[in-house]
Amino acid sequence: MWRLFGYGADGTKTAASSSQSDKAPPARSLPSSWYTSTALFELERRAIFSKRWTLLTHSLRFQKAGDYLSFNLANYPIFLVRDRDGRINGFHNICRHRAYPVIEAASGTASILSCKYHNWSYGFKGNLAKAPRFDTVEGFDKSQHGLLPVHVHVDKGGFIWVNLQAGEPDADWKHDFGTLDENENLQSFDYAAEFKYTHTWGMDVEANWKAVVDNYNECYHCPTSHPLIAGVTDIAKYRVEPNAACLEHTIINKVQEQKGQFRRSIIFTFPYVSVTVTDNFFYIQRMVPISATLTKIENETYRHNNATDEAFDAIIQFYKQVLDEDKTLCDEAQKNLNNGIYITGELHPDKEKGPLFIQDTVRRGVMEHRRREEELGAEIWPAVPKPMGEMDTSRLSEEEAFCSKLEAELFAEDTSVALAPKAVALAAVATHERYKTLL
Ligand code: FES
Ligand SMILES: [Fe+2]
């Protein structure tokens, strides 16, 4: 209960709450502005998506050297590739020459990673192997132009995680996820031996990513919105409990062994990916933030070797229907978050423990990051590597400083008029959009 608003992370009351009564303040949602603001979304990209370990896929997708997968994570394009030693390496999907994406397809097998712009080619460990006609350029040093790596962690179950933070991540995987890969619900299968990847399907949801993961992590809405789930599940016993950076869903079927029913384990991993495991299949659901009001859902689906066609099709249809229903809920609620009337609502401290955990984790993450930025007087972008080697010149510093000064002046001009706080926020968003257009 200490996670409720008005309480600090250590469970102590804040000044605002202690000045009122001893009664615990009600659990309230984050305000709607947090679900619509482009400035806040960009802060989340810096404070959360750039530096949290994020579950992505499974090593079953990497059967041989050269197998690759590409992803767009909150507008950070990356890819994973298996090298000849069997390791899975991750890189920003950005050619070191003139920034074209090295990998264009969502998946495939390569013998070498060739950029289609000027044909620079990289090995599976990210080393620059070939730069056409640069052999005539005196002093050109290939070792200075390797792909920019991202951190990769493969857990005991074969699930693959990435962390985009340049240099050492603030937290190692174990710090955030502890013994998740020993969780008995997740470890009841030998994934590599028992499952095969089949397909990925998805949809765009016109809603903020938090609205989508909030929705995913409570079953308070199941009786009204999901007849299929309500049909098989003892909803009163459905629980969502925080455990480290995860939310564990405990699901009890009405009748465990009745025909048409099935065991389900769901673990959501902050910030936006979950794994659902059943006897017949498992799937990794990525709810990828694209903008303040758009989220892309990608469901990577794996079939159990013993699943019959009938059982596999039935479970796919089950989840397709549930997801269609959730899409409608999120799309329609977001329209009202956008229209400016709704401010905040009271959440059920038990039935909506999942959304409360997510919102509190986001709130603390972005506020702490912003505090550090204000102290520094500049934005902190953890995924951006520091200029290094031959790149790190005084000319680069001068050019960067020139451009940031120009931006700061433009921003100051746009916000110098005395405006109400909300209008200032809107002006800041508009200015931010303008920067993007200018750049
Ligand atoms: S941008 Fe990749 S080779 Fe030029
Ligand atoms: Fe739902």
TrEMBL record:
Q: Which UniProt keywords apply?
A: 2Fe-2S, Iron, Iron-sulfur, Metal-binding, Oxidoreductase
**Start and end of every Rieske domain?**
53-162
Q: Which portions of the sequence form the region Disordered?
A: 10-30
Pfam families per record: Rieske, Ring_hydroxyl_A
What is this enzyme's class at the first EC digit?
Answer: oxidoreductase
Q: Do the record's keywords include Kinase?
A: no
Q: Could you tell me which CDD domains the record lists for this protein? A: RHO_alpha_C, Rieske_RO_Alpha_N
Name under which the protein is recorded = Choline monooxygenase, chloroplastic
Q: Which reaction does it catalyse?
A: choline + 2 reduced [2Fe-2S]-[ferredoxin] + O2 + 2 H(+) = betaine aldehyde hydrate + 2 oxidized [2Fe-2S]-[ferredoxin] + H2O
Q: Which cofactor does it need?
A: Fe cation
- Catalytic activity, EC: 1.14.15.7
Family named by the database record: Belongs to the choline monooxygenase family.
Q: Which InterPro entries match?
A: Rieske_2Fe-2S (IPR017941), Rieske_2Fe-2S_sf (IPR036922), Ring_hydroxy_dOase_asu_C_dom (IPR015879), Rng_hydr_dOase-A (IPR001663)
UniProt pathway annotation: Amine and polyamine biosynthesis; betaine biosynthesis via choline pathway; betaine aldehyde from choline (monooxygenase route): step 1/1
What is known about what this protein does? Catalyzes the first step of the osmoprotectant glycine betaine synthesis.
| Domain of life where this protein originates | Eukaryota
**Organism listed in the record:** Sporothrix stenoceras
